Amino acid sequence: MWTRSIGAALGLGALVASLAACGGSSGDSASEQALQHEADLYAIDQIEKTWHEATSTRNVDLMMTLFAPNATYTIGPGKTFVGKKQIRGFWLTAPVFQPENHWVSETPAYKIRITANGDRGTLYFECHYIDPKTMQVVGLVSADQQVARINGRWLVTTHVGATPELIP
């Protein structure tokens, strides 16, 4: 699934580049800008999809591909991790990554909010952790993130987590 997402993103990037090359104008047209904006929103959305793949498969290496080298990760008052090494340490001890927990992570689509403005953006989503054996919600957290395009790739620069209220 992750490979397909990368391929789709690369394909979309190639489409943006080819459309830009076909244009006869000296600057970006409104349609080219709109297409780039849509490509950015899609790429930012892939962070959420990869996040859930990483937590559902307990793949901390995949999770770490989402963070900028100097990212911050806050999960509560006085609980901020700085840089990939500290963030990795947090994830290695998080309940979702423990071998005894075989949870599935998902986000209701209507609880995702994404913005993009140039090389900066935001991403908000909720993680509903489900135990497939009991079909019960075993965890609920939200991710409120600042993201940035760094070396051509969208990465999380700031994460603030919280416990939202579980409502439809």
SSE order and pairing:
Blueprint: H1 2-22, H2 30-57, H3 60-64, E1 67-76, E2 79-82, H4 83-93, E3 104-106, E4 113-117, E5 120-131, E6 136-150, E7 153-162
Parallel strand pairs: 1-7
Antiparallel strand pairs: 1-2, 3-5, 4-5, 5-6, 6-7
Question: How would you portray this structure in words?
Answer:
This protein has 168 residues and is of the alpha+beta class. The protein has a single domain, classed as Nuclear Transport Factor 2, Chain: A. Helices cover 39% and strands 35% of the residues. It is built from 4 helices and 7 strands; from the N terminus they run αααββαβββββ. Strands 1, 2, 3, 4, 5, 6 and 7 form a 7-stranded mixed sheet that branches. The longest helix has 28 residues. It starts with a helix and ends in a 6-residue tail after the last strand. The N terminus is likely disordered.
Structural class, from secondary structure content? alpha+beta
Overall structural domain count: 1
Total DSSP E strands: 7
Number of helical stretches of at least 4 residues: 4
Q: What's the N-to-C terminus distance?
A: 27 Å
Query: Do you know the CATH architecture?
Result: Roll
Radius of gyration: 17 Å
Q: What is the CATH domain class?
A: Alpha Beta
Q: Which range does the strand content fall in?
A: 35-45%
- Mean pLDDT across all residues, rounded? 86
Principal-axes shape call: globular
Order of helices and strands: HHHEEHEEEEE
